[in-house]
User: Fold these one by one.
Assistant:
Number 1:
Amino acid sequence: MNVFLLFDISFIMKKTIFSILLLLFCLGLLFVKNTIIQESIISASQLFFYKVFPSLFPMMILSDLFFYFHVPEVISHFLGPLFSRFFHMSFQGCYLFLLSCISGSPANVYAMKNLVLENQLSMEEACYLVSFSFFQSPLFLYSAISSFAPNSHVFYLMLIPYVSNLILGFFTRPVFSFQNIKKSPTYQEFGLFFSNSLKNVMNTLTFVLGSMVFFFLVNSLINPKNVAFLKGILEISQGLYALRSFENSLFVKELLAMIFVSFGGLSIHMQVKGILSEAGIPYLPFLKGRIYEIIVSITLFLMFHYAFFLKM
């Protein structure tokens, strides 16, 4: 027993010493790389407030309002049977997928978390949905891709992620159909509901801003040559806009864009993982979905590029 106790103490001491050294190293960087760190924080904040916040904030508020006024039930009444037949999802799952197409991530994950916490979506279906309902905000995606690609290429590049996710959803669908969860609506005074909605949305967006700043800092410290691929793997918006000045062929730029859009960047992965954890939804299905989506998207991109542009 004493041997095991000494081993535990030794392990804890080593871990503590390592943590202290790491924190001291980070503290030193604040002084040595102060200018770079400040510029990174300002750049991340500007990108968030000028590009990310304007697209995420209204969609998150609207998604809460949709639930309050039972819009999912109306949409599901018309399109639910179609999605149930081909993807075996419930009516609530149908609504979440459609919301994902419009709002992008992590706004759709925020809505998914709320449905799970309200017991209107099963944990099994949430794991299935999170693997193939990953999109970027269409407005953000159009702005980012059109900054380096000609207009004739923009829309097909925007279409590929949607087709890829539909393919993934169809071929990974469960053998059984998820049941529609019927729950008696609970009345909440609108003023209180809206106040709580604002608090929850702002908490989530603050976390999004923090993760963006963190990965901007990481990029500035480990990527001094501003390699576009590393930028996109760390943070998607930074990577896509970096392709404007990336000195390579249009084919390579578009291929990198498909990888960035399909993977999403480690910043979004951190955001999604944090939101999912609030409802106890595992992160692994999301990660697997992004790896599969990269493979499918690259395949579709190469097929489309060969079929249309090489023959022109």
Note: The longest helix spans residues 34-68.
Number 2:
Amino acid sequence: MKEIIDKMKSNVLFYTGAYVVVFAISKIFLKVLELEYMQYIYKFSFFVIIIGLIIGLIQIAHKSKYKIVKISIVLLMIAIVVLCTIFIQIILLFYVVYFPPEHVVEKENGKMVGYVYSFLRTRVDYYEYINFFLRSEKIKFSEDYGKGGFDPIENPNIHAVQEYTYYDKNGKVINHKYIEQSTKQEDKQEEQEEERPFNYEDGYEIFFNEKEGCRVDVVDWAMGKEAIKVYTTNDGENWNSQIETNNGIMWVHYDSKFLFINPKVGFIFDNGRAGDPEDYATLQVTTNGGKSYQDCKIIHPSNITEKNLLIKDLPIYEEGILKLTIYTLNYNKEPKRTYYEFISNDGIEWKYNKDL
């Protein structure tokens, strides 16, 4: 018996079989604890078992005294290679189904492991992250993105979630949350590229890259004014309130417009109270990502004789320079309005562009 065991130990197949047994036992143990291996553990094990089988068969063929054994093993290995080549598409499909893209992300105020399934429809299943080796066995929640063929975690802020599904501790569905797709995220991105800034009823949103963005939300209305909140994101998912007041809001007049040229510098064009000629439009600027705003300083040049300098709209940003259209009113002249261009490097102080 000892001789048989010693002979088995001299072959890699013995250790490959031992690895399979240990791995199977560990799986049973983890299931009792409601835990599961991270995906790379399965990929590593699959690689180890395949390599072990190949080396073990080669060892048997090399050590065997019988020619028929050697020939049989060689033919077996050739047949396996041929079958794998013929059924490569099925093998790849098997790989995609059983080894979907795995991502460790911050979700629901914690670290989660997300698996992306995108064959016909795109779905992401999330499990609790335990450590580098383990995750929870029971699914926590899932996101349904509708059409398939993409990875929403690798390409955030492009595709919108259509449905959330939440599960209890036993993996049973306890809630569905449907997201109304009145405006697709793809359409929002295209609109920003075609015409910036854009203004819509619920506020303003812009991304400067895949992760950094700014947003203005209208949260209340009263007496001809609207309350806004300003948010920024550094990871494309979690939005942080910025305005440094007790309630985190700021009041502006109806139909105010918003613009950010980078994550720090942004503007609010408040066009004033309708019907009141003394309540002219104002332009406010933030240089700290929306934490605080101040009135822009329009420096009155000596060659403009009219007293009032009135702001037409939000500034535009071209070739690293901010440009602002300002006009004057003179009812004794025709046309009554005269337009001028002012420029700024920081958005705070504006000077007349004498080069025009």
Note: The helical segments are 2-9, 12-32, 39-63, 67-86, 88-98, 185-194.
Number 3:
Amino acid sequence: MNRLLIKSVELNGSTTDILIEGERIRQIAPNIIDDGAIQIDGRAKAAIPGFINTHTHAAMTLFRGCGDDMPLMRWLEEQIWPREAHLTEEDVYWGAKLACLEMIKSGTTCFIDSYHHQPATARAVEEMGIRGILASACFDNFDDAKAQKVRQSLPKLHNNTLQYSSRITYAIAPHAIYTVSPSTLQWIDAYAKANNLIIHLHLAETEGEVADSLQRFGFTPVRHLHHLGILSPRLLIAHGLYIDDEEIHILADHGVQVAHNPASNMKLASGHAFRFVEMRRAGIPVGIGTDGCSSSNNLDMVEAMKLASLLGKSWRKDPEVFTAAEAFYAATAQGADILHVDAGRIEEGRLADICLIDLNIPAFTPNLNFISNLVYAANGSCVDTLICNGRILMQGRKVAGEDEIMQQATRCAKRLC
């Protein structure tokens, strides 16, 4: 069984060793001796859990910089959906590999994805070595024939995912209440319940979505899902900007979870007043996501933590809310809990998903408060080494095959854009 030994690394303010055996952390203690283990020099480095990205569209790395500075619906209808219509399996494969490369470079070990050609993403994630909860993006546009195709395709995609390692699991991603009919949403909920799957859905992202929901269904988005009977702990909603007090309690009562995406919310001007404080007080688990590279332009969870914290303080005019520690927790332990991954914490017995942060850079000088420096001063380039499932995926900021990945992804993007 493969063993790694991280020597003399800073963990929670103390210097210690971390022994990894197979895919899990076996021992955390000073002065561990294991002559058979591969040793990693942890001096001048700090160990943190790998980041958990709770909302993205991996292969949209291909559309980075395409259709910038536009409102959400115009951006989707004029720039994104027409190009996505021409996506091939090969495009998604290289776009997803580029996403994995970027996530590895910035410390992410696990993400939940919502996109097309899900088998291509699964193949890319398997090869790159990180964890993926890979959801099939679903649209029926209120068309019965398309709805039938969704019901036929999802079980096949689910079965296809079972061929991969335990790092890859399946989820379902109905796009939004304005692109997926109520009957399909209810079918997806029943299928997810029967198969213990996460449902990942964009919800309450814009004022326009709320107005459309009221006109079309007679309910706000959250109340629409409540009326359909599909709120449950299986549901992870992305964005959740336009949610009132009563809806927060409805979500909490049903165990629904939320992914906050500050970068895309600001860039698309969807809104800024994400109600983190009220959600957390109600007991709603809140993770952090980057969204896709076409709407946030990068997959850097360190930057996403900073944006989440600063935005939360700014709109409330309160510097004491959404602290650095809360942002770090949302991006690690809370994200792991949301995605049902036994990681997000560096503890004996947990999965060995670990970042080593380079402390010998200006952002950590002086290192008076490590978490503060990580959230407010650093960015993803501070990650020197990344270990996922007990395997070294990056060391000294080098990832195997990165040049080819960037070249092939560029080729695919130029054809599409």
Note: The first helix runs from residue 72 to 84.
Number 4:
Amino acid sequence: MATERRVLITGAGSGLGRALALRYARHGDRVACVDIQAARADETRALLPGEGHLALATDVASDDAMQALHDAVLAAWGGVDVLVNNAGIASGGAMVETTMEEWRRILEVDLLSVVRGCRLFLPGMLAAGSGQVISTASFAGLAGAPGLMTYGVAKAAVVALSEQLRSEVASRGVRVSVLCPAFFKTNLCESGIGNPQAMVVARKLMDVSPDTLDGVADRVFAAAQAGTFLILPTRAEPMRWRLKRWFPALYFRLMRKRMRSLSADR
């Protein structure tokens, strides 16, 4: 019989966050469903089997709101065993199209929310000598693709943060994983900012993706359970990642060709 864990998931009101909440609950864990919208957090909690789950509304871009979340979870549970930093928003556009407002918004939500979660919940894991931090980045953070400037940079920083955090806590009983999926069908673009045409391309990539939400969630959950660090849960990305590492010039040419094709088809 597996030991029940206390699992906190941000962005649990829909998409991958909700799918992961279901999988942890089915595994027998208690899940704190965190979303910026209280109604969506409640909807996810109502779907979960088992008892003891929480639904909490929090703005992950706010220091004060995240501190309040931490205090509420500690009061209810005494701590967490698995932290899933999953909340995020999409953006698109070239560097010359970006605004400083866009940069600040994306970094606050997609990067600094991960920093806030780690700063607040990691000390309890280190004190216990066990735990896991799982953060959702994106293959955009590895791909170096055009037209995803703010989003790609923020997600690349999540990968770098996870790499450094893994080194810091590896000897202290805490595991670290980072997810880097490519496009699959979710509602991520509903919160998108930046160039609207970039969201059109993103939706097209979601529509033609062979990956489903359930398939991605199954692969993420299995890999996280195994303690895999870099999780590439969409089908084409493991080979694309190898291609970039081993044959970077070829990867660059193929990536540019694919992006030109997508732009021409808009």
Note: Residues 100-128 form the longest helix (29 residues).
